[in-house]
Amino acid sequence: MSRKLIFAAIGLAPVIVIGALAVAARPKPTPTPELTASPSPQGQAKITWSQSQISETLFPGTNKIVTVRFRSSQDLGSVALWITPSLDGTVSTNPSSFASIRANRDYEVAVVVSVPAEFKKRSFGGTIHLRNDGKPPRTFAEPLQVEFRIDFLTYKSESIGVTFSYPPAWITTEVATPSPNDPTPTILAVTSPSGSKLLVLPDGGEGYDLGDELEQTVSAITLSGFSGVRRDFKDSNGRAFLSHIELRGIPGHPAFVIELRVRSTADLTSLETLLRTIQVKL
Q1: Yes or no: is domain 153-280 CATH 1.20.210.10?
Q2: What are the sequence ranges of the domains in the chain?
Q3: What mean pLDDT comes out for the span 272-281?
Q4: What is the sign, positive or negative, of the torsion defined by CA atoms of 165, 173, 189, 263?
Q5: Quick check: 142 pLDDT over 80?
Q6: What 8-state DSSP symbol labels residue 101?
Q7: CATH class in words for 42-150
Q8: How far from each other are the two terminal CA atoms of the chain, in whole angstroms?
Q9: Which helix (H) or strand (E) holds 186?
Q10: Which of 67, 86, 165, 169 has its CA 20 to 30 A from that of 55?
């Protein structure tokens, strides 16, 4: 081999080595990740209620259960029904939480509204929210509006000499029922929309032909300062349907009777509250 060729080969060697190093040092391209749809955050879930608002008027000391439904636009984990502090002690829900929520599926909630027994006209308002169990908790829109008020009317019967308070939706009537002993005795009736009644019979009597076979409970009662006897009757299914109260010592009325006639068990609390408001004024 000639001297020129040797020198040429020697001169090419560094170039080949440098080129090889350059190829080895070149970074490998990063593989393109597969595109997958990431789930939307739960904070964007929208809650839809079967009704936008609960609005009720209640008689003091009573309660009402309103059944509502809701659905979420997305799947949710464990959630709780959170009630604003303005409704503390007056509103509760059943259930109060759900282990999980599936999207676009209806869930039922019983909202229980209970008002104080105090005869004071008041209004309440607030909202019920769906909230997750995370920290910090996250609330989902939209909330359910809840508004209710305590209301009552007062009735005074000049002919019988009684006053009492009663629910605004109930109706009061006085019916004259002439008899041989008194040509103008009066029966006072307070009737609920479902047909339950409170009757005041100042000269005695009873609305049912009561038989010994009916289950009954006898107890003492004091009403408007007068003592008496109360008999509570139940039907064959064990449901209360009549309370018969005889008050003693009322001048001019040796057999002053009050009856609670129950057509709907939902009226029981209102009937008992109404009974406690009766004042006999002679």
Answers
A1: no
A2: 42-150, 153-280
A3: 93
A4: negative
A5: yes
A6: B
A7: mainly beta
A8: 147
A9: strand 186-191
A10: 165
